Amino acid sequence: MIVDSCLSPHDRTPAGLKYLRELGVDVATSVKRIIATHWHNDHVKGLSQTVAECKAAKFICSQSLWSKEFIALTDLWRRQRLGISPVTELTAVLDTISKSQTILKGGAGESPLGFAIANRCLWRRGIVGNAKIDTSAELHSLSPSDAAVQQSLQTIAKLLAPEELLTHPLPSRPNQFSVVLWLRAGSIRVLLGADLEEQHNAAGGWAVIVGSVERPQEQSSLFKIPHHGSVTGECEAVWKTMLTEYPVALLTPFHSGRTELPTRQDVDRICGRTPVAFIACRFRGSSSRGRTGSVNRTIHETVRYIRPANDGFGHVRARRKLSQEAGQWSVATFGDAIPLTQLYGGQRHEHL
Question: In the predicted model, what is the mean pLDDT of residues 3-21?
Fold first, then answer.
């Protein structure tokens, strides 16, 4: 499965596709699920190409992203030719899914489209052949809740007002429609937190997931930390009830303008919960640092855009063998990925 998408800075291809191909995987037949956790710009670049090339995969997203309100909003932005990446990616995915549904119409086969909602099984596989080890697997969505979907639809409908059309096409705070995933493969459990926020999110934050009696109750040993490690995605009960002691924790950074996530305080908090935390890359430096205003103006008058040649990019790979009932994760970093303790030059926790 592929969850969300970003582009490799080296050749501008979807990173998920590139990684699987380097492993020798036939993405056209082997990828069974593509999940869009939500439609923010840093999660969707290259997703339309991923959907087009993974022909055997079902595309899964929140139902609010396939509602008449959201499609109307997308169409409105497209007709105004506002080249916002999330809208561009969405319309291309819409076109691909529509063609797939036309091919399947009147015939047998699985629908190319599915919706994630709290406590829904998105995929399941039994033990393969006569395997001596447990090779069964299942994937569940733990969010968004019914209340979060309803609230998202109301927010999207408000964006159709003419005075709102020149703003970002998606509601952003708090992120209440993000899809949280729980994966089991054999005895291994993984919790993928996407960007779901807890603060000010009464409709469907982490506390709602923790309190659900319908979700899978086993604890996960690997955790994709939500919302770039921001305190807005923090829920102490998740660490106490849904995760094993000292799980492997993974996250990606966020840098826009003066906003950098995780902050030093976020890193201290996360590393205080687990000694095995990793981040996909360091923060990228500002391209205008050290240049005067006149130099920047000349650059922008001469070239279309500018970005660092050594654009930060890396990935963290976590592996475990199904044959190891209580085995440890083997974690490796590539490119600019580093242990989280190194992001700000080391932390104060002695056990690290």
Answer: 93
